[in-house]
Amino acid sequence: MRRLVVDGVTALLAAGGLTLLVIGGSPAPPPAPPQRPAAAPSAPGTPPAAASRALAASVPVRLQIPVIGVDTTLMSLGLNADGTVEVPPLRAGAPAGWYRNLRTPGEVGPAVILGHVDTAHDGPAVFYRLRELRPGDRATVTRSDGGAVVFVVERVVEVPKNDFPTDEVYGPVDYPALRLVTCGGTFDHTRHEYRGNILVYARLQPSD
Length: 208
Description:
CATH superfamily: Sortase
CATH topology: Sortase, Chain: A
Mean pLDDT: 80
Oligomer: single chain
């Protein structure tokens, strides 16, 4: 891994993996805030249907997305000593990781899971097929309390790394949300990194 400073923002770079930004003299907010944000309030007159199904906090331990062959344990990710966001190990068989300074899957608010798309030496990684997800696909997260929560994909987007939608990914929402993040786009062979990110936005499956 290496660091790159662009317009005062420090980026933690891993070849073939993730690029996550932190504050480094820039007024722009970091994509991964160090604290758990409060949930956004519901709009006046809006029934809190989504919030009513919300669960108490429980650490996620497994992620399964059958349609793209994902079945991974989940490691816990925090912040490095320099304030950059931790990422999973860049090696074959590395699991995806849940960013523990936000919500747990099933709570009101965004839960964020990050994984590598591939590695230079070992080929495809845990989120190699993430870009193939489509609205309506489902992802199941097993929690340490023994329960499992199902999220339904709402949209999948590719964004440039230098235009990461921080607020959309990490900002507060008034329903249980899941965000999946990996690298994507074309590969810059000079810098040995992907030029973009693949982002999956999902919502807790409605109750029957």
